Amino acid sequence: MGKYSITNPVIYGVGAVNSLGEEISELGCKKVMVVTDEGVSKAGILDKIKKILKASNIEYIVYDKIIEDPPDYIVNEGGQLAKDEQIDGIIAVGGGSSMDAAKGINVLFNNELPVSKYYGNPFYNKGLPLVMVVTTAGTGSENTSIGVITDTENNNKNSVIATQTLAILDPELTLTVPREYTMATGMDVFSHAVEALTAKETNPHSDVLAIAAIKKIVKSLLVCVEDGNDLDARSDLLIASNFAGIAFNDALVHLGHSIAHSIGAKFHVVHGVACALAEPEVMKYASKFESDRVKIVGEAMGLKFSGGETDEEIGEKVASRIREFSKKVGVKSIEELGIKKGELVGIANMVINDVTIGFAPEPITEKEAEKILANIFDNYK
């Protein structure tokens, strides 16, 4: 038995950000906190947001201290600032980190600090209207019910359960995303889609969105990496990110993210890159249990199947296609990232203890995790 839903409405299209002032006003907000990072400010996007808010006579404060994989202390600081300033709404402007931090800040607004009290805990006083203005095609956090936060006390990633009121997707805001970040966030989207298709609890809604996302990524990611100003390709990626986010919000991600979370925590590899490196071997693993679904991943990537392939052959064929695609868009190998094989294999225990492992098609042992990690090193050069 599965389930599917959509957490919040989405406004999409070129120029969609210009509706922000009207939407905030309709939500009854008169003083908002803009949660963002320095990169958004440097790109000129923050100035645009300020101008829109001023034109609608909405008072605002800016909290621009968000960094990648937002740590708990940043969220706690933002939560206290929101309380002190007595805001009545929050606008996240940025990628997944800003959106996740904004979710954590919103959890804290009507509740006691610190944010660690609410990891995995849906029982708290609800917060304020929260609007996501997306500037990268990556996490899909604008439509998920999870805000990922770095737990600095335990040196791992944890999360709050929180949703938003509205998402605004304007592809023009993504034109300034640098090449490397475009690649990494695009591969993160890809991993959301392929894992949503192969997770333990799939559903038809997630399936349709995940397949559409994969097709758009395969069509447009390389274009965006080579020409960041291609608005049509940027539009494809932004929708792919949103579709994949909605897809995995219900079907959930699994082993690929367990591996990526562990690689990120141990070696500080960018999340999307770690996901890209994991997925070929994850699809080989998944094909042992649900080769028909792995075949769907391959077909969405443009592969043809005769119908006579074994489960193992399907897994290897799809894995090869993913490796080929990853190389084209510029994903470096584990060795190129300066990580030794023994070091990578050594995180197997972290992998099997990551929270997302529970959504994999079948459980894996530490020895099986070691083999998968070794294959990630050996098979992608």
From TrEMBL:
Signal peptide range: none
Segments forming a coiled coil: none
Superkingdom assignment: Bacteria
Keyword annotations of the record: Oxidoreductase
Pfam families: ADH_Fe_C (PF25137), Fe-ADH (PF00465)
Domain Alcohol dehydrogenase iron-type/glycerol dehydrogenase GldA per the UniProt entry, residue ranges: 10-171
Entry EC number(s): 1.1.1.202
InterPro entries hit by this protein: ADH_Fe/GldA, ADH_Fe_C, Alcohol_dehydrogenase_Fe
Residue ranges occupied by any Fe-containing alcohol dehydrogenase-like C-terminal domain in the UniProt entry: 182-376
Group of enzyme by EC: oxidoreductase
Molecular function terms from GO: 1,3-propanediol dehydrogenase activity; alcohol dehydrogenase (NAD+) activity; metal ion binding
Family note: Belongs to the iron-containing alcohol dehydrogenase family.
PANTHER family referenced in this protein's UniProt entry, alphabetically: ALCOHOL DEHYDROGENASE (PTHR11496), ALCOHOL DEHYDROGENASE 4 (PTHR11496:SF102)
Name of the protein in its database record: DhaT2
Organism for this UniProt entry: Clostridium kluyveri (strain ATCC 8527 / DSM 555 / NBRC 12016 / NCIMB 10680 / K1)
